[in-house]
Write a structure and sequence with these properties.
It is built from 23 helices and 21 strands. By secondary structure, the protein is of the alpha+beta class. Residues 98-112 have a biased composition (Low complexity).
């Protein structure tokens, strides 16, 4: 048992619950760890493995301060965070296990880094174009995740199949993981059960202008930066980022990924210079997209509708219009001028999501420069007439029922092999299934049957296949039960508790103790005792000098020190009452 743990255990016992929870979370302590008291907690936090996990998480300034403290100097203003991490004692000195771990590492050095050079007009233009491309690619990614959640690998990266599918939209596959990380930081996507899903805030973001979309992304990017890169409310010059976690072997790769996301967002130019619009963000001010907006292409609010069931946007379509149009048509190409194609399936999907023939035609008439061609009007009205031919609802018995005025269609569904999992049974009123209503509906929709869900009143219901979760930060581990358990074992006399632990450790290791006993007359006597047992408030062992077995009341023991650790497991700690 280590005597270095005793001061830390006393400090932990006196710390507020919130401070303990923050410490445990920062040190990566599991909420279900099997500690019985604060001495266990202190010893675990001072274990070499725990210290080795904590040191790579220190930013440069704290690493330098810890090294100064190990060298006997004052840690300065950074002593507070290091004490809160249990890497320094309250007096600002390191425990020997921490000193040993720090001494074994390379000395970190801090130096002043000047701000990056401002971008020239050419570099800024390329950065603005990249930012515009990134915002558009993120919108595509969020829309895809809204329709169908994206599969993730165990490590959190997008699955290769998803990358191939997304790359078909024109996004470079090598940027997809960075784009997904930007979207997660902005709260547009969330990882749930190894799937990437769109959140509730994604829809409102999709309908904002390009500059407003960019503003939300870069401010979220700044808020998610590691604390070692932060400078107040802003960030350190990007040229200083690589040196900010000197003891982390994983940092070079992480830093490269963060810098690439900054480049994708147009915050860093290709030559490492800084565009004008990145300066307020670095200095901690709100984002100002005005200088960026001047370099972005002008958004349009009108399209050309053509007889071949396509639509052409003569420039970047306003995001709100683009999002709604893509709910009705399939986008075939994305560039300065985008093209869209209307199909029976795309119109049916719009009807399923709550549109009507009238709302679709009114919307298209409002944004069209060429009116509505007759073939497109015919496609919308015919699809609307067929939509809802199959009605799915729950009857009074709780079973799912499928009804239609078209008996031939019901017969076809009854023998369709694609619908076998539903186990549809025919009766006089239609088809029934033991599967849930939503399951039946989406299976029929996937099989391209014109189905709709209706409520008890017979009115159509709009059902979201992939309901968006609300955006919330990851839940912090709940350390309250652990802290409560530690406090339950916290006695009023820390010295006595520590002595009990020392004696228990000596008994387990069969060590030889130099025990100081308080005699009835108030004098003290020392005994060399080979500890053999502890119980009932008494310590048992063989007195080496007299070669007899002795039983000593623990309350009479003033102190106990291991003098022959080789006799047992090597315990070297001391204890005093």
């Amino acid at each position: 048992m280590s005597t270095h743990a005793r001061p830390l255990a006393v400090w932990l016992a006196q710390a507020p619950d919130a401070q303990l929870a923050a410490l445990f979370e920062a040190r990566g302590v599991r909420a279900d760890v099997a500690w019985s008291d604060f001495f266990d907690a202190a010893e675990a936090l001072l274990e070499p493995a725990s210290i080795e996990r904590a040191l790579p998480r220190l930013p440069l300034t704290e690493a330098v301060a810890l090294r100064r403290s190990v060298n006997g100097d004052d840690a300065g203003d950074d002593a507070g965070p290091l004490i809160a991490l249990a890497l320094l004692r309250p007096d600002g000195t390191p425990a020997p296990p921490v000193a040993e771990a720090v001494t074994a590492r390379q000395d970190p050095t801090a130096s002043e880094t000047p701000p990056p050079e401002p971008s020239d007009e050419s570099a800024a233009a390329r950065a603005a174009e990249r930012a515009f491309t990134t915002v558009a690619a993120l919108a595509d990614l969020v829309l895809l995740a809204s329709d169908t959640p994206l599969a993730l690998l165990t490590g959190g990266a997008l699955a290769s199949g998803e990358k191939r599918r997304i790359a078909a939209t024109g996004t470079a596959p090598e940027t997809l993981d960075d784009l997904a990380a930007i979207a997660v930081d902005a709260g547009l996507l969330a990882a749930l059960d190894r799937r990437l899903v769109a959140t509730e805030s994604a829809d409102s973001w999709l309908r904002e202008s390009a500059s407003a979309r960019w503003t939300g992304l870069v401010q979220a990017f700044r808020a998610a930066l590691p604390r070692g890169l932060r400078d107040g409310d802003g960030w350190l010059p990007t040229t200083a980022w690589a040196a900010q976690y000197p003891w982390s072997t994983a940092w070079p790769e992480q830093c490269s990924a963060i810098a690439e996301r900054a480049r994708l967002l147009g915050l860093i130019a290709d030559d490492g210079s800084e565009p004008e619009w990145a300066v307020p963000l670095r200095e901690g001010a709100p984002a100002d997209p005005a200088s960026l907006q001047r370099m972005l292409p002008t958004e349009v609010d009108r399209i050309f509708l053509q007889n071949d069931l396509t639509a052409i946007a003569p420039g970047p379509l306003q995001p709100a219009l683009d999002v709604r149009l893509r709910r009705i048509a399939v986008r075939e190409s994305a560039a300065q001028a985008s093209s869209y194609r209307f199909t029976a399936d795309s119109v049916a999907q719009a009807l399923t999501s709550g549109e009507t023939a009238a709302s679709i035609l009114d919307f298209l008439a409002e944004i069209s420069l060429t009116g509505i061609p007759q073939p497109l009007e015919y496609l919308v009205t015919q699809t609307d007439q067929r939509h809802g031919l199959v009605r799915v609802f729950t009857d009074a018995s709780g079973r799912t029922r499928v009804a239609s005025v078209d008996a031939t269609l019901l017969d076809a569904m009854g023998v369709d092999q694609a619908l076998r999992p539903l186990a549809l049974a025919r009766d006089a009123d239609g088809l029934t299934s033991r599967a849930g209503r939503d399951t039946v509906y989406w299976t029929l929709t996937d099989a391209r049957y014109p189905a709709m869900i209706v409520g008890d009143d017979g009115r159509p219901l709009v059902v979201d296949r992939n309901p968006a979760p609300g955006h919330a930060p990851p839940a912090a581990p709940d350390y309250l039960p652990l802290i409560a358990r530690l406090r339950e074992r916290q006695g009023p006399d820390a010295d006595a508790a520590w002595l009990d632990r020392e004696l228990e450790a000596a008994v387990r290791s069969k060590a030889v103790l130099l025990v100081e006993i308080e005699m009835p007359d108030g004098t003290a006597r020392e005994l060399q005792l080979e500890a053999s047992g502890l119980g009932g408030g008494r310590l048992r062992g063989r007195d080496r000098a007299a070669d007899v077995e002795r039983t000593l009341p623990v309350r009479s023991i003033r102190s106990a020190r291991v003098i022959d650790p080789s006799a047992g497991s090597g315990a070297t700690a001391t204890g005093e009452r």
